[in-house]
Fold this sequence. Notes:
- Chain A is mostly helical.
- Chain A has a single domain, classed as ABC transporter involved in vitamin B12 uptake, BtuC (Orthogonal Bundle).
- Chain A is built from 12 helices and 2 strands, in the order H-H-H-H-E-E-H-H-H-H-H-H-H-H.
- The longest helix of chain A is centred in the N-terminal third of the chain and has 31 residues, at 2-32.
- With 341 residues, chain B is mostly helical.
- Chain B has one domain.
- A two-stranded antiparallel ribbon of chain B has the order 1-2. A two-stranded antiparallel ribbon of chain B has the order 3-4.
- The chains are: A mainly alpha (288), B mainly alpha (341), C alpha/beta (406).
- Chains in contact: A-B, A-C, B-C.
Amino acid sequence: MDLSFVILVEMLYAVASLVLISAGLAIVFGMMKVINLAHGEFMMMGGYATITAVGLGVNVFVAMLVIAPLVVGLIGLIVERLVIRHLYGRLVDTMLATWGLSLVFIGLATMIFGNTTTGISTPIPGFAVGGYQINGYNFFIIVVSIVLVIAMYAILRGTRAGLIARGTMQRSDMAAALGYSPDRIYMATFFCGSALSGLAGAVLAPLVGLVPTSGGAYIAEAFITVIAGGPSLIAGLVSSATAFGLVNQIFTFAISPVIGEVALLVAAVVLLRAMPQGITGRFFKDKM
Amino acid sequence: MERSATQDVLITLVVSALLIWIMPMLITTYTLTVLIIYGMLGLSLGLIWGFGGILCFGQAAFFGLGAYTYAIAAINIGESTVPMILAVLVPAVFAALLGAMMFYGRLTDVYLGVITLVVTLILFKFVNSTAGPQYVIGNARIGGFNGIPGFQTLNVPGDPNAYIWGVPYYYVCAVALVIVFLLVTWLLRSSFGRIAVGIRENETRMGLMGYDVAARKTVLFAIGAAIAGLAGALFANWGEIVTPNLFSLGQSAEIIIWCIVGGLGTRLGPIVGAAGLAYLKFMLGQQSMIDNTLIIGLILVLFVLFLPRGLVPAISGLFEATFGRARRRPAARRMRRARHG
Amino acid sequence: MSLNRRELLGGAATLTAAGLLPTVTLAADTIQLGSILDTSGIFDAYGKPMDQAMRLAVKEINDAGGLLGKQVEVAAYDTQSDMALYSQYAQQLTRQDQVDVVHGGILSASREAIRQTMRKTKTLYFYNVQYEGGVCDRNIFVTGVTPAQQVEVLVPYAMGKSGPKVHILAADYNYGQITARWIQKFVEDNGGEVVATDFFPLDVSDFGSTITKIQQTAPDLVFAPLVGGAHLSFFRQWAAAGMKDKIPLASTTMGVGNEHKVLTPEEGNGIMVAYNYSQELETPSNVAFKEKWEAEYGDTTAIHELAVSTYQGIMLWAEGVRKAGSVDRDAVIDALETGISIEGPAGKVTIDPQTHHATLDVHIMEFEGQGMTVVETLPQRAPIDTQAVCDLQANPDDNTQYEIEI
């Protein structure tokens, strides 16, 4: 009984962390059809921003939830103005340019922070469930993900900005004709997407050792999750994260973490072969 | 592609003979050999991406597969001829199966990218976790992260003790590249090549004209993989060790960068890009002022922004503008580059 | 001109920048030391301090008048954590620069990538890194510790402090696999039992399910030879789950790249390790070494096991050259095979003639406040694992890396 509860928490945690690491990429891809391959590095910078801020004496939760998203969002804004905006509508070129940017960020982080592993410790203690110890921080990540999804839904559904954003997503030319500058909307979207990437990196930082190349570990999973999710932003993100998170954890517990990761990848191939437009290309159509 | 076939072959032969003769005076043959091998790897992606419109994120998978096939076969057989052939065939068959799965499933664009990326990751993760003694193929331990050292290197066919290494090996690789280059030229001049370019430009139209688009893309994909596999086998012979890094995403990324920098949609561009950037990386290793990753990344960003067609088209364009006669051909006949993935 | 320079180099200790002078012009007048290390890319946390240690050792030799009256000159290449570059620079060092000795290589794969080149070109090669053991090649000298040297002393100590049931978590590559087998052997020799062994590729960073699994097997001790930045997550997640005070940890790798300085004291304290070196060693030679390091680089925090191994490797080579009176490969090998020893920062290091590995002091340590406190020192442990398979005295033409069957 205790064991099944622990496993349930681990599964929820796997799904939640997939949602978290994919959210920033999903927004930028869903709204702008830009695949930001520097996404992992944005997360890495979120981690470093947190660690630096904590080192300067800032409260760890403020650093994670406020400072890191802001810092990374601003970096994203600069990147958008300097590079991405010249490449809208050229899917492959943006992928390559952001790939180059990811290398630049790795290089810069290496020059600033060195290649030595750094990190901060988890701010929430573990606790016991029956005979098992469980990582309290897992719950924090689950809560952050749920709040994040609800907030995204509320903003897109309930606010004027969300309405404009959805309109631009469907027909950017019509939105432009109605007087909303796609340029400014894209800029704002990229800022939000980057900030979310920074948030994800910051929130996950206490669980891992951080090095400048850490981003590489996330980008593939995030990329796969977003593409497999398909055209609907939130429904796609949640459904594919759930599918992959469960597959991963089932195989991890049954066999080993490596098999879990491979199972996730195999599931992605099978899923894309069966549904070439992603999950929401077939199910949950016309949802957000 | 305006020159006649004979002219093209002659020019290729003369220029490459000159280069093979002159280059060793500038760069040591050992380094030169690997530049040639990377050139071949660049060409393999340049063919399927630049002329077939298939953006493969996992060209390194075929490179690594070729290298591992060679290493494993060489340990078991103890002679290099059959392993070389296997190193070309195994990646080709693998790519044909993978390609058939993707192209008959009508996967395009990013979805294609994701699948190739994922397959590379699976291979990488698999090979990386084979350190245990239970992972054996014949006499060869796969060796996991540490890779496979100490296999039979290239020998004169039929005589396992007559090793080809050092300067002769440089000539072998150079000639191999010239042959592959000529084969690619021939392929692109054939109706198969022209139809491939047609598919790149407009898949639907070619399908409606009655061509089996999926089959043709699959074949082209397999040919690209065969070339990458050959490059992998040559690389294994050169380095005398194969490691899972050959399958890594970083390696795949580099191949794509080579193609972009050199110039997509040309035969020469990817070769020049590969050799040039690999040499740059080698030179950068002798300084420690600036982080090398940073430089490579900057180069990629700057090229995408300011020179998206790549070096070779830009230089030849400049050359023609300066010295060449005014072109009489209408611009519409020039090949458009496939940058839409 | 050349005479002037020779006088200058021979006599004046002021010319400490000899390493920066161009290679070719001085080829005959100086001794060439080749270095090949990852000083950028993902392994540079290991490589950079090794590079600093190498330069410090060479500077010290040169300040003391050089070797055989000649200055030692460094030809260093950065392999950028790329295995292909190892092959290229090895060729460069042996064929173009024609150095007298090569020190370097970090990962086992990098060593295997260049070892045969060194052998073919008859260039003496020093591999100064803790590794899985078993290399048997007359052309190579290994000055790092091997698993049996660590595990033999660490297992009884750790089991004594905890209990007989051991769960092993090892990095899934050559080193981890072999180390896990040695741990199993010594656990059983000491009357214990290995309840489970799990292997993790180097990029695994999520250990949540593993921590649950460990609680199912309920061991008395977790032995974790995990390697690299991703695996550091285990120690962090272990502490975050509140397991740290319930089941003790021991490791043969944690701290080699100064990882213990990344963990907070709460996460790290009490982890048991066994190494050749610790910054907290209070021997006179280590104090002197840290002073020299501080004078050169200003800060001693970067010093780690591999850096000290590199320093000791160069000093052993220098001792061999002095004894041989020449830099000729065979003469130096013969001199080193007489069982030369030096007093390094980590204590006495002796070359074992039978295996070309090192006999050295092993210290059992526990992490305490981001440092490694020495609990017990076991002097002069021989490389028993490699000795079991390799005898270069009886079989000098051997050229194999043995996988040691236990």
